[in-house]
Write a structure and sequence with these properties.
Elements (H helix, E strand, L loop, with lengths): L4 E6 L4 H12 L4 E8 L4 H11 L4 E3 L1 H8 L5 E4 L7 H9 L3 E4 L2 H7 L1 H6 L5 E3 L2 H9 L8 E8 L9 H4 L4 H4 L9 H9 L1 H14 L6 E5 L5 E7 L4 E5 L5 H9 L22 E2 L7 H11 L3 H17 L5 H17 L9 H20 L4
Parallel strand pairs: 1-2, 1-4, 2-3, 4-5, 5-6, 7-8
Antiparallel strand pairs: 7-9, 8-11, 9-10
Helix pairs in contact: 3-4, 5-11, 5-14, 7-11, 11-13, 13-14, 13-15, 14-15, 14-16, 15-16
Length: 369
Amino acid sequence: MSRPRDVVILGSTGSIGVQALDVVTRNPGRFRVVGLAAGGGRTDLLEQQVRAFGVSRVAMGADAAAELAGMGCDVVLNAMAGAAGLLPTLAALDAGNVVALANKESLIIGGPLVKKRAAPGQIRPVDSEHSALAQCLMGGRHEEVARLILTASGGPFRDWDAGRLATATPEQALAHPTWSMGPLVTINSATLVNKGLEVIEAHLLFDIPFERIGVVVHPQSVVHSMVEFVDGSTLAQASPPDMRLPIAWALGYPDRFADAAPGCDWTRAAAWEFAPLDDEAFPAVSLARRAGAAGGTAPAVFNAADEVAVAAFLAGRLAFTGIVDTIAVVLQRHLSSDNRGNADTVERVLTADEWARKAAAEVIEGGAL
């Protein structure tokens, strides 16, 4: 066995971070945790992790996480939430570290800036959908790909119409039927904003045009995504919903670890459902496509407006449907303005992020929806 891989985990007290540490524990001798970063909300758990893994370098807060990500190691798992993950992703890339990316926002808002700094193979997706796509894409050449098909559980409201969605409460929206995640990602899954962000992420990761990236609702969350090739063949990656599998794949690539997560039980009868997305009830994916196609800082604006709107919804200051409505208003203002910029510097991205947050707050506080 080769030497253990040195791993830094950003967002170690969150759902992905905790499961990543479980992967490390289940694979003794393969990894050595050399750094941990957390936001500061669960210091007791962070202290336990530090002691359990003998970690000497610890960071709290985004700036400290960026410094930690830039230290010499083999892999940085970025599991931070939201736009705060951008600077740590850039720091890790600049240091030559492989980035196991669970913080999709840093790629989405950074766009060309992140891609320019990343060497081929330096970013490994941790999202189950993009991990699935990466694995399926091994089955053919890039020019043979017809479509990428992202699966969506549909969240807790997949059978609700637009009128009923306006009455959804935070408690209902946080009750995801399949996955256990942090509040931002869970609400984004309920609105399908998360799937919209994943469409942008897939475009950036795999260089496939938006018109060749589809979304299908799959409530069982067993097929994590699919790739359709030009000959009509479709390859799918299937496994019971367990994030330890894509985490282990990203940390250990090109090796696969035995029993990273339970596999499908083929001795029992099972049915997998697939249905088209209801764009009328869930317009977030179409809105994300618009932002992604516009490029520049539009994806950063989309993401920032969402984060502000989600916080307002959780605080009881905004209706559930107001989340996507707020994003739509702010994005339209951005696209109609003379200040549309390129996402070619950190400063421009962060300026767009700040503008969108202020604009979203004004829309919500002004009751314009």
